[in-house]
Every structure is written in C-alpha cells, then in structure tokens.
Specification:
This protein is an alpha/beta fold. The protein contains 19 helices and 10 strands. It is globular. Keywords: Cell membrane, Lipoprotein, Membrane, Palmitate, Signal. It comes from Cohnella silvisoli.
C-alpha cells in the first residue's frame, strides 16, 4: 500500500475489531447483474422484513451503477463479481454496472458526482468521503434496519462489527453532517507489528512482547539468531515514531506535539526518552541496516523473504506480499509494546484502525435496488469470500478470520480507543512530512544524538510555525 490512510477520528469504543486493506492500480471493467428483495426502511422485525422483501423482489428493476476502489485483477473484485452474480440471480430485472477504478477512484469520484454522472454506490474511506463528498452521501439509518443477506435474520446494522458501526457514525458529526450512518464499513484494517513466527521460534521466543523491555529482549534474541529484528521503508516511517509516542502518551498528546507553535513540547522528557531508545535500537543493530535507503516496498519484501523479523504495518500486509512470502509463511502480529513512564493515555488500550466503506449517492434514482446490492456486498457469503480470497478480516460478526490475521484478535480485544493514522504524528501536515520524519531518520541512522534531536526538533517547530 503506497497510499496512507490518515483521516480517522479518535473515539472511545467498548470493543474493537478492525481489518485489512490492500492497494493497487485500477482498470475499468463492467459487469452486469441484478438486485434482491428490499424491505421497507420502517420494518422493525426480521420476519416482517422477510415478508416485505419477498413481496418486493420482482418489483426491483432499472439500473444500478457501482464504482469500486479495486482493480479487476485484485482478489476483492472476484468476490464482488460473485456477489453481483448472486444479486442478479435473485433480481433479474435490475441491470448492474460495476466499474473497477482501482485507487484512481479517489481523484475521479468527486468530479463524476458533481457532473451528475450516474453512480449509485461507491467505495471510499468513510472519513475522507464524509469530509469531501458530504453533499453527495445518503443517510442510511432507516435502510440499515432491513434484513441482512445471510446473517441469520440480523438487520444490516447488527450484522456488521459494532465497533466499526460506532466509528462510522462518529465521523458524521466531525464532517458537519447530522449524526447518523452514511457509510457501511467493509475491508477494515488495523496497524500492528507483523512478524515471522518461524524466525521468532528459531530465536527461542515463545510469546509476543507486551512491554518495551520484552521487545528489546526479543530483539536481542533475534539478533543472536542471525536475523535483523526490525525494518521499515519510506512509506511507513511515521508509524514507528507515532507508535512509540502514541503508546507512551496517547494520540491527543502526539497531535498537540506536532502542532505546538512554540516548540517547547519537544523538550518534554518523553521526547528525550524516545530519542534515547531509538539511538539504542540503532546502536545495538536492531534496525535493519537498509532502513536509510529503503524505498517502498523494500522493507516488507525483506520481511516476506525472511531477511528481517518484524515490520510495523497494516493488516493488509499478509495479502499484499503473499506472492513473495508464499503459502507456508507463518504470520504473527502484536500491538506496539507498552512504553514506560507514559501518562496512562496510551498503552494497548489504543489502536489505529479504520475501514473502507460503501456509500450511496443521495441523488440516486434507484436507492431500493442500490441498497439491496449493498446488502449482498456486505453479506455473510461475500465477507467470507473476502477472508478466504483476499486474506481480509471480514466486516460481519461471527465470521471466521483468515489464519494470517488470527493473532490480530488479541489487539482488537485489548483496544478501547481508536487512534488516528500514525497515532497523531502525521497531524502536523507539512511539518510532519517535511521535518518530523526526516529528522527522525537522522536519529535512527546515527547522524544526530538524542540531545541534538530534542534541540533540533524544538527549534524547527518554532521556526516552522513562526507567524502562523
């Protein structure tokens, strides 16, 4: 994934489950299909919804246009094609056109919607969509009361992981919309350390590290076994900075740090502790010697090839490098270790997570058929297909996760706070990309020491924000 997802809002959640996302380029491809029974938005019981759906099955007709964020060569598109085929079998009077845009959808969707082009359903990051396309999205609260497809009588809302539904609802207020649901989450993800279990076992590591001290001990065992412990590349350097500081102090603190106009927050003892720990990782050769020049996807390829043991990334990673890693690669994952001397706002209660979403155009002329297609796309069968064919954790409740992501459940069960991308370290925009990350690399490669790092960051922050 060479595009980062950075637009997620912090919120407290009682439970948390999230899942993988995967990148690629797109070609357009059209597929015809049709739609299934649609219950009235006012239905309140599964039985009544079923009867209403059956009565309306033959009345759904017209055309539905779905713009997908996947290319027609990705495994997700195959699952979508199967869902559309099932939809067509149940609703032969509805014509469906699927356009596989790939990630180009991010630049194509807004002008297409504004020009009035027929697009009934589209895929987007919900945070970005509600911020940039809020004049085009349909509120789905009533529609979510319809019966889901294949989830034992549950409504659509109740068939999706509750933490994801809570998350997308929270985004509406942030975007300035009436509180409610404007997207149905699917293809969720979380940011975790992914590791090669075989290398851990060879080094004698029997449990994943929970604390920073345990993390360092495991790095030493990995080094002694002849493997480099940690890698990253230029696309994900921010995750290591934010992971440490966010684990120590929480994402709100990290957000304030990168926005501090005085530069004084960079003199906080936690920043010096961070700098000393990064220097320690470098001095003990726990970082891959290639991190200075690693260009995406070099780091993750080294993980797949067994040259390095750990890589901080998203849950899309096992699928993204499956061709290199092979079917026998033993995947494991764990949350960023707990950093000592923090403020109790971080730790493993916080996790960066999000999802893609399915949204309806509020100007659609065929909402009943469009939403019925959405129900197939987030139905139990399709989500099982995503898990099996795309190595993605399904968005539906009570659906088995793919084996490479099984250990991610531990992090999801621990977490109660949804942290933004990079734990807030990217919230400084140009300051983050132009100063925070480059100066971190000077520290991580030994060009500057901890005290010099603190002084430089304080001075650079004051200089950047002067007059702003």
């Amino acid at each position: 994934m060479n595009k980062k997802r950075k637009t997620f809002v912090s919120l407290l959640l009682s439970t948390m489950l999230a899942l993988s996302v995967l990148a690629g380029c797109g070609k357009s491809n059209n597929t015809e299909a049709t739609a299934t029974p649609s219950a009235s938005p006012s239905e309140t019981t599964p039985a009544a919804a079923t009867e209403k759906a059956s009565a309306e099955a033959s009345s759904l007709e017209g055309k539905v246009v779905f713009w997908s964020m996947w290319s027609n060569t990705e495994p997700q598109s195959k699952v979508i094609d199967e869902a559309v085929a099932d939809f067509k079998a149940a609703n032969p009077k509805v014509d469906v056109e699927v356009k596989y845009n790939g990630r180009d959808i991010n630049k194509l969707i807004k002008p297409a919607l504004e020009s009035g082009q027929q697009i009934d359903i589209f895929e987007q990051d919900p945070g970005a969509a509600l911020a940039n396309l809020k004049d085009h999205v349909l509120k789905l609260d009533d529609l979510l009361a319809q019966q889901s497809v294949g989830s034992d009588g549950k409504t659509v809302k109740d068939s999706i992981l509750p933490s994801l539904m809570d998350w997308v609802k929270s985004l509406s207020v942030t975007a300035g919309l009436d509180e409610g649901y404007y997207a149905i989450p699917q293809q969720p993800y979380a940011v975790l350390f992914f590791y090669n279990k075989a290398l851990f076992e060879k080094a004698g590591i029997t449990a994943v590290p929970a604390s920073w001290e345990e993390f360092l001990a495991d790095c030493e065992l990995l080094k002694k076994s002849g493997v480099e412990p940690i890698t990253f590349d230029d696309a994900y350097r921010d995750l290591f900075i934010g992971g440490y500081l966010g684990s120590a102090m929480g994402s709100d603190w990290t957000d304030k740090l990168v926005k501090d106009k005085t530069g004084d927050m960079w003199k906080d003892p936690m920043v010096l502790q961070f700098a000393k720990d990064i220097q320690n990782l470098k001095d003990k050769d726990y970082f891959s010697k290639k991190i200075a020049g690693n260009k995406y996807p070099a780091g993750q390829q080294d993980l797949a090839l067994g040259k390095v043991a750990m890589y901080l990334n998203g849950t899309w990673l096992p699928n993204e490098i499956s061709a290199t890693a092979g079917p026998d690669f033993k995947w494991g994952s764990f949350q960023f270790p707990i950093i000592p001397n923090g403020n109790d706002k971080g730790g493993q209660q916080g996790l960066t997570f999000g999802a893609q979403g399915l949204l309806l155009n509020k100007n659609s002329k065929n909402v009943p058929a469009a939403f019925e297609l959405v129900k197939y796309l987030v139905g139990k069968k399709a989500q099982e297909g995503m898990a099996k064919q795309a190595v993605a954790i399904p968005a539906t409740v009570d659906t088995e996760w793919p084996a490479p992501l099984a250990e991610a459940a531990v992090a999801f069960n621990n977490a109660k706070v949804n942290m933004p991308w990079g734990f807030g370290i990217d919230n400084g925009a140009d300051f983050s990309t132009g100063t925070v990350i480059p100066v971190f690399m000077e520290l991580a490669t030994g060009k500057i020491g901890p005290d010099e790092y603190v002084a430089k960051m304080a001075a650079e922050a004051k200089k950047f924000y002067a007059g702003k």
